[in-house]
Design a protein that fits this description.
mainly beta, Elongation Factor Tu (Ef-tu), domain 3, seven-stranded antiparallel beta sheet, 1 helix
């Protein structure tokens, strides 16, 4: 099921999506994990966004809004500056305590 995830006003079409609650130091925190495609044209903007590592996160279909940071981040490629390339990204964001 495709899901929209909004990170600091940037809409991302998630191909896979999971939402769970994680207990950290006695606090229940939202944690989402999702995968998405990034094209060579989007690469710079997406990676620049992710380097901030302090986000406003919204998932409209889940009625979920929180401030979060990256818990885990993987990609199938390390350089998407070549034209017409597409990479698979996986991102786990956790609510800031």
């Amino acid at each position: 099921m495709e899901q929209k995830v909004i990170i600091d006003d940037v809409e991302i079409d998630a191909l896979t999506f999971s939402n769970e609650v994680s207990t950290v130091e006695g606090k229940n925190l939202h944690k989402i994990t999702f995968t998405f495609k990034v094209t060579s044209e989007e690469y710079h903007d997406i990676t620049s966004l992710l380097y901030k590592n302090d986000f406003s996160v919204s998932v409209p279909k889940e009625n979920l809004v929180f401030n979060g940071t990256i818990q885990n981040y993987t990609t199938s490629v390390t350089n998407l500056y070549e034209e017409n390339k597409v990479g698979d990204f996986q991102l786990t964001l956790i609510e800031k305590s």
